[in-house]
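4.2 Preliminary Data

To establish feasibility before requesting continued support, the project team ran the inverse folding procedure on a target of 108 residues. The structure was first converted into the token representation described in Section 3, and no sequence information of any kind was made available to the design step. The complete token record follows.
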């Protein structure tokens, strides 16, 4: 069952060449804002300054983060600016206050 994602900015969906980096950035921003005390495997918390971007790999499909609207309801509006840098190609991906993050599953 595919995971569909969308980022809406100023009433329009952002056009992205979606990859794991964008998905990781989207969920990292959502969790940093709504559940910053979520513990990291190696110690520390998601809200710590040292936590730059989470790597969910396939784990995003099985997330359970209480208090995170993106995870619990499939939609979250960001309150703050977030900037992520892709370690592979140097792409800078910025999420802005007011961006609406959405994720839902589709069935056939």
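Position-by-position output of the design step:
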């Amino acid at each position: 069952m595919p995971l569909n994602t969308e980022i809406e900015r100023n009433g329009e969906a952002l056009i992205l060449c979606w990859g794991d980096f964008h998905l990781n950035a989207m969920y990292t921003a959502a969790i940093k804002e709504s559940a910053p005390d979520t513990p990291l495997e190696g110690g520390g918390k998601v809200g710590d300054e040292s936590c730059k971007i989470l790597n969910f790999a396939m784990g995003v499909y099985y997330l359970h983060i209480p208090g995170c609207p993106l995870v619990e309801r499939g939609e979250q509006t960001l309150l703050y600016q977030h900037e992520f840098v892709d370690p592979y190609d140097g792409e800078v991906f910025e999420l802005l206050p007011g961006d609406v993050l959405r994720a839902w599953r589709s069935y056939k």
